[in-house]
From TrEMBL:
A Pfam family hit: EamA
Record's bilayer topology term: Multi-pass membrane protein
Cell location: Membrane
Ranges for domain EamA: 40-173, 191-324
PANTHER family found in the cross-reference section: ACYL-MALONYL CONDENSING ENZYME-RELATED, SOLUTE CARRIER FAMILY 35 MEMBER G5-RELATED
Record-linked InterPro entries: EamA_dom, EmrE-like
Ranges annotated as spanning the membrane: 39-58, 159-178, 190-210, 222-245, 251-274, 281-300
Protein name: EamA domain-containing protein
Region ranges (Disordered): 11-30
Biased composition (Pro residues): 16-25
Species assigned in the record: Felis catus (Cat)
The gene coding this protein: SLC35G6
């Protein structure tokens, strides 16, 4: 054979060898992130982190010009209305299919109530504590509602993460609840915590209703309905329950615009994530909002952050790591890796 030894049939190393190419994985070994993994990552990066800026930004606007909570909710709803152009371009009905229209409007109403309670709570309670109570109540209510209504179970690691995140929230809020002042100030503070709890309950109900919606343009439809229902309810409520304010400083308007954009991103990401993974796990991962809010509360708003807040934030982050690690997996072509 030409180019090789006549006895041992060895290759001729004097000839240049073709460039080596890295071995490619067989098609059955190629994997991509599973739906649960994508849902948790979207909830963490697109839902929790942007939402952590909303409470502190609103508190800055309130401290600068006493920006009413319903007026900020109106500003946020305005950012949802341009989604109607997308629905029109796609030829989809603005209010969704007729048979699911009532349920879609109920989802929008529950989200409006949740956001309204949250914004009202931030006026009298530190932003980090309000986010803590709201996310904690939404997590536990989502877990209980899913077990009772959907018969959808959770693994032992998931329950460990849920209980750990709830424990972290109790560590953050517990000392503040035990030192409520007597009189009007203490009453307003307690009312703020109650509103934050009700906001979390409404959020968990809204997520459960959204999981029952199934039509092609579901996500843009519910996003538009949130803006429409929010405007219809907030505009009369602003003039009846609160006093409209027209801020003169650019800080208030900048904070209102930032709240509208960040909240819209968070709304879309959370709505997407809840279709991929259990709503209780989505709410647990959204506890990252609490950590971000506490950091901004200390470094931007110059409000006190107690050692218990830092300890509770660490427990929350550890619980998020447990839930995320438990649900990390990849799907192979034609096979799912558990």
């Amino acid at each position: 054979m030409a180019g090789s030894h006549p006895y041992f049939n060895l290759p001729d190393f004097t000839q240049p060898s073709p460039p080596s190419t890295p071995p490619s994985l067989p098609s059955h070994q190629r994997c991509r992130p599973s739906d649960a993994t994508k849902g948790l990552l979207v909830a963490l990066l697109g839902g929790g982190l942007p939402a952590g800026f909303v409470g502190p930004f609103f508190r800055m606007a309130y401290q600068a010009s006493h920006f009413p909570s319903l007026e900020l909710l109106i500003c946020r709803c305005v950012f949802h209305l341009p989604i109607a152009l997308l629905l029109k371009l796609r030829g989809d009905p603005l209010l969704g299919p007729p048979d699911l229209r009532a349920r879609a409007c109920l989802h929008a109403l529950l989200n409006v109530l949740s956001i309204g309670c949250a914004y009202s709570a931030v006026q009298v309670v530190p932003a980090g504590n309000a986010a803590t109570v709201r996310k904690g109540s939404s997590t536990m209510c989502s877990a209980l509602l899913a077990l009772c209504l959907e018969s959808q179970g959770l693994s032992g690691y998931d329950w460990c993460g849920l209980l750990g995140s709830t424990l972290g929230l109790i560590i953050i809020v517990g000392p503040g609840l035990g030192t409520l002042q007597e009189g009007t100030t203490g009453l307003y503070t307690a009312l703020g915590y109650v509103l934050a709890f009700l906001g979390g309950l409404a959020l968990s109900l809204g997520l459960l209703v959204y999981r029952s919606l199934d039509f092609p343009s579901c996500l843009p439809t519910v996003a538009f309905l949130f803006g429409l229902v929010g405007l219809v309810g907030s505009v009369p409520g602003l003039f009846v329950l609160q006093t409209p304010v027209l801020p003169n400083d650019p800080l208030s308007w900048s904070c209102a615009g930032a709240v509208g954009i960040l909240a819209l991103v968070s709304f879309v990401c959370v709505s997407y994530a809840v279709t991929k993974v259990h709503p209780a796990l989505v709410c647990a991962v959204l506890h990252s909002e609490v950590v971000v809010a506490l950091m901004l509360q200390y470094y931007v708003l110059y409000e006190t952050v107690a050692p218990s807040d830092i300890m509770g934030a660490g427990v929350v982050l550890g619980s998020i790591a447990i839930i995320t690690a438990q649900n990390l997996s990849c799907e192979k072509e034609g096979q799912v890796e558990e």
